[in-house]
Amino acid sequence: MLGSEALAKHAQRTPTRPRIRSQGSPRNRALLSLPTSSHSALVYKMTTAMAVDKAKAPKIDVDEFLTLAVSETPAELHPFFESFRSLHSRKLWHQLTNKLLEFFDHPLSKPYRVGVFDKFVRDFESRLNQLRLVEMGVKVSKEIDNPVTHLQFLTDLLGRVDTEKSPEAHVLLLSSLAHAKLLYGDHEGTKNDIDEAWKVLDNLSSVDPSVNAAYYGVAADYYKSKAEYAPYYKNSLLYLACIDPAKDLTTEERLLRAHDLGIAAFLGDTIYNFGELLMHPILDALDGTPHEWIKKLLFTFNEGNIGKFEALSPLFPKEPILQENYPFLRQKICLMALIESVFKRGAYDRTMSFQTIAEETHLPLDEVEHLVMKALSLKLIKGSLDQVDQKAQITWVQPRVLSREQIGQLAQRLAAWNAKLHQVEERIAPEVLVNS
Asked: For residue 229, what are the CA distances in angstroms to 28, 215, 221, 241, 311?
């Protein structure tokens, strides 16, 4: 018999996300770190020590369960259980899946989700679309606030999903398990699950957006917790490409995501092209907030505008991590100014004197050589240095995602190039006609 107490026993609230805080040295400190605790470590050891065998489906009396559920749940949920009975008896698994997803989305179903999944869905889970089954399982698992039970629930479900037949379901479940471990402070377990999920995901030609979103979302959170800015920036943008931020994220979540992407763009030592982020609507979340200046600073970096950078620098104390890394940011804006200066020049006008570079980057003349060498080592430009004549010959500049203004400048250069071709045509056309 499954009474209301038994239902409630298995149905618990969503685990509270640990409060996020920063720690460590300025460059290696996490954007917003996920703290660990001795309790979390103990939980993980207990969980991983358990033998994970493929669980056998328990014998379930479906009619008895549904009858009892109707008597023990609010009247608003009764139509669901009646539909479950009808669809199950007729073996309409697709329609039953849709009705279950609708039930799990109903706010009043929260206390009963775990019970319905364990005492009803388990009876026929092998007949369902495995990706939809995992989606239900992930939603249900969020109602379990006991760390051991939470991880064991997902691990047991993982053992019942066939990777070869349902690779997408396997990736989604691994990503969800990695996210749970991250919340409980197990970074090593999180990384292992992320790596295993990628091995499967990388071999798939077509993937459901929800699966990609789950993977890139947890990967971004992991790198965020480790203060690895460039991987966080990449995975976070990929995550946003898989969802509709306006529908799938709350206002607070959009603001936090935009803020963290901005910080990662500034502090990532390999990020020198902000074009993709600047064109993304996620940045609109910063408008009208105390963090709006971060958006302005992003555009300033993309333009390589040192004057605007210096004008905004008094706001850096609002973000202590930027203030602590001011020397790095100063070097970065100088590199961006150098890239922008080279980009604006024509292909035959890219031999620049050290004096010109010093003026463009607002640097002392004796620091120009080091700056150019830094740009060469980062592969932002290609070329050579003439230390005797104090000149830099630039033959290539890193491809960039261009702003509308930069596209306009490029269009002007193409128009000028086309005009030169027309002049050449007019000059040689008579000679061609005479010779023919």
From this structure: 9, 17, 11, 18, 25
For residue 184, CA distances in Å to 19, 100, 145, 155 come to 11, 29, 11, 15
| DSSP category for residue 351 | E
What is the crossing angle of helices 130-141 and 147-160, to 10°?
170
* Mean pLDDT calculated for residue range 222-251: 97
pLDDT per residue over 311-351, tens digit each?
Answer: 999 999 999 999 999 999 999 999 999 998 998 887 778 89
- Residue 250 phi, psi dihedral angles, 5° rounding: -75, 170
Structure tokens at 368: 């120009």
In the chain, pLDDT over 70 holds for what percent of residues?
Answer: 85
CA gap 419, 120 in Å, rounded = 74
> What are the pLDDT digits (tens) for 49-89?
333 344 455 567 888 999 999 999 999 999 999 999 999 99
CA dist 75 to 70, 80, 120, 173, Å? 8, 10, 19, 33
Which secondary structure element, helix H or strand E, spans residue 9, and what is its range? helix 4-10
Report whether 274 contacts 333 (CB < 8 A): no
CA distance 299 to 419: 32
**What is the distance between the alpha carbons of residues 119 and 111, in angstroms, rounded to a whole number?**
14
pTM for the model: 0.81
User: What is the mean predicted confidence (pLDDT) over 173-179?
Assistant: 97
Place of tokens 């001011």: 326
The distance of Cα 279 from the centroid of its chain, to the nearest Å, equals 16
Instruction: Give the N- to C-terminal CA distance of the chain in Å, as an integer.
Output: 101
Determine which of 53-67, 276-290, 422-436 has the lowest per-residue pLDDT on average.
53-67
Strand order in the sheet with 381-386: 351-353, 391-397, 381-386
The three-state secondary structure class of 90 is coil
Encode 378-397: b = buried (16+ Cβ within 10 Å), e = exposed: eebbebebeeeeebbebeeb
Contact 303, 340 (CB under 8 A): yes
DSSP per residue over 280-343, as a string?
A: SGGGGGGTTSTTHHHHHHHHHHHHT-HHHHHHHGGGGGGSHHHHHTHHHHHHHHHHHHHHHHHH
